[in-house]
Write a structure and sequence with these properties.
The protein has a 4-stranded parallel beta sheet with strand order 4-3-5-6, with helices on both faces. Strands 1-2 form a two-stranded antiparallel sheet. The chain has a two-stranded antiparallel ribbon with strand order 7-8. It is an alpha/beta fold. Helices cover 53% and strands 6% of the residues. The chain contains 24 helices and 8 strands.
Length: 511
């Protein structure tokens, strides 16, 4: 049975003074240092060298954790929570703008004072707040390194001796925690989360900070830093109860509001992101649009499309898009391809990176390979199946001839030769290129490549819709898909969508 009365944690701290002196992870601070520490974290404390903490200490509202060389009190940083609660209880709740109405100000102050708790009541409540801090201080040597990723070892011990002392201390702490009423402490943990949220209610920002390095968190200033420390204290308490009682409490980013089942998993990768930090970190980074690499890898079949895309999006790396030119070898077994497409797609899945494949359906080997990857569920992203190829899925024969004529004119030739040529029977880019080379006095080796791709993109920019039916060119949808991948949910698509192996369209899965 759990006891209903809370033990005197301050007395236990005194009993464990020697162990805490060896294992404590946060240094004790004299009054001036404690004032600076608290003030820098958004606590409205008065004083410089001395001030509110000394006054509260003399009133026995604020406990000390030791004495300095001249007998002055030393405070653990967690005492900031008690200091905060005392100052909140002392706060005169009137609007700052009340001073404008000077005639009524005194009456307003008197009214506000009458509603405040008296000094004796504040003193009584401090013992409750102090008990919360005391337990957190007792648990800090065990759980603070997990929260910060930083281990502080006393200079008089090596790491092996430190771990032995901590294991012995942990056994004592276990006996203490299992004797406590977990229901009561779960409510206290909730109150800590609410206090933190009242200072700063940005739960997702807290997760981002919590998963950042301790050196960055330690240097934070202002209310965000104060809320972070309160949440860290709450996590110390939560981890102890979860460790020794097998219970699961809400994590510290949660306060007001409710989460529907599955939403946290979609956003953070887990319902409990702090239980698996390595797994959750990329989700949270993506949620805040902090790219550590490409978000989508876009595979294109050759130079024409490659340079057309770069004409529209010249700085792809800045928007998280990686463009891979397969140089016409999408279905080849040759080893001179940057990476085999199959292996690239598997790598994308391992990194939770979207894959986007643009290919021409007039090549049977391409169709066969893409269908195989669909069957093996290796593609999470988008498939752009060009029928029959990139040029003819986006442009009419007359538009292509006009674009080719403009390129022809750059050599000092008349574009009429190209525009008025016989283009009948031309229904794919390969035949169009052959016919162009036949008509052209320039005798180019190829129409493909950078110049042709950029010319197609420039024309599409000026004319976003096809001239024959007024429909938007598919090229623009592909551009949008690449850009929207920055805000898309990878796991949602993986779990709920698949590709039609005939049309290559993205459809809802039956599972």
């Amino acid at each position: 049975m759990k006891q209903n009365t809370t033990p005197d944690f301050h007395q236990i701290i005194e009993e464990y003074t020697d162990e805490l002196g060896l294992l404590r992870q946060n240094r004790l601070q004299d009054e001036g240092g404690f004032i600076r520490f608290s003030s820098e974290r958004g606590i409205s404390v008065w004083g410089i060298i001395t001030g509110d903490p000394g006054d509260f200490y003399r009133r026995r509202w604020l406990s000390s954790d030791g004495t300095n060389y001249n007998g002055g009190p030393l405070f653990h940083p967690f005492r900031m929570y008690t200091l905060f609660k005392i100052l909140e209880a002392c706060k005169l709740n009137i609007a700052t703008s009340s001073t404008i109405n000077r005639d009524s100000l005194i009456g307003l102050i008197e009214c506000a004072l009458s509603l405040m708790q008296n000094v004796e009541q504040i003193g009584e409540m401090t013992s409750q707040w102090d008990q919360v801090v005391n337990l957190a201080i007792l648990l800090e040597p065990i759980y603070w390194p997990k929260i910060t990723g930083h281990l502080s070892i006393s200079g008089i011990m090596n790491e092996e001796n430190f771990k032995k002392h901590r294991e012995c201390y942990r056994d004592k702490i276990r006996q203490l925690v299992v004797s406590l009423n977990s229901t009561d402490w779960r409510k206290i943990h909730e109150s800590l989360r609410f206090d933190a949220a009242n200072i700063d209610d940005n739960g997702s920002l807290y997760l981002l900070l919590r998963l950042s390095s301790w050196s960055q968190r330690e240097r934070l200033k202002g209310h965000i830093a104060g809320a972070l420390w309160f949440r860290h204290m709450a996590e110390v308490i939560r981890r102890a109860f979860e460790d020794f009682t097998s219970e699961k409490w809400e994590e510290e980013d949660q306060a007001y509001g409710m989460w529907s089942h599955g939403v946290r998993t979609n956003i953070y990768g887990s319902e409990r992101p702090l239980d698996d930090e390595l797994h959750s970190r990329p989700y949270i980074a993506l949620y805040h649009r902090l790219f550590t690499g490409s978000v989508i890898r876009w595979y294109v079949e050759g130079d024409t499309e490659y340079y057309a895309i770069l004409k529209i999006l010249p700085e792809l790396s800045k928007i998280g898009v990686e463009l891979v030119n397969l140089h016409g070898n999408i279905a080849t077994s040759k080893q001179n391809v940057a990476l085999k497409l199959r292996d690239c797609l598997k790598e994308d899945k391992a990194l939770r990176r979207f894959s986007m494949i643009s290919f021409d359906t007039d090549v049977a080997a391409n169709v066969k390979l893409v269908k195989r990857q669909i069957k093996q569920k290796n593609i999470i992203g988008f498939i752009a199946a060009h029928k029959p190829d990139f040029e003819f899925s986006n442009f009419t024969i007359y538009e292509l001839s006009d674009i080719a004529a403009k390129i022809y004119e750059t050599g000092g030739f008349s574009g009429k030769v190209i525009r008025n040529a016989n283009w009948s029977g031309v229904d794919c880019s390969r035949i169009f290129e052959e016919r162009y080379k036949k008509f052209s006095a320039k005798h180019p080796q190829s129409l493909k490549g950078k110049e042709w791709g950029e010319a197609l993109a420039s024309y599409a920019l000026e004319h976003p819709h096809r001239e024959d039916d007024g429909s938007e060119r598919p090229f623009w949808r592909e551009i949008r898909v690449a850009l929207q991948s920055r805000v898309a949910n990878y796991d949602f698509q993986k779990d709920h969508y698949e590709f039609n192996p005939v049309t290559f369209e993205l459809i809802k899965s039956n599972t």
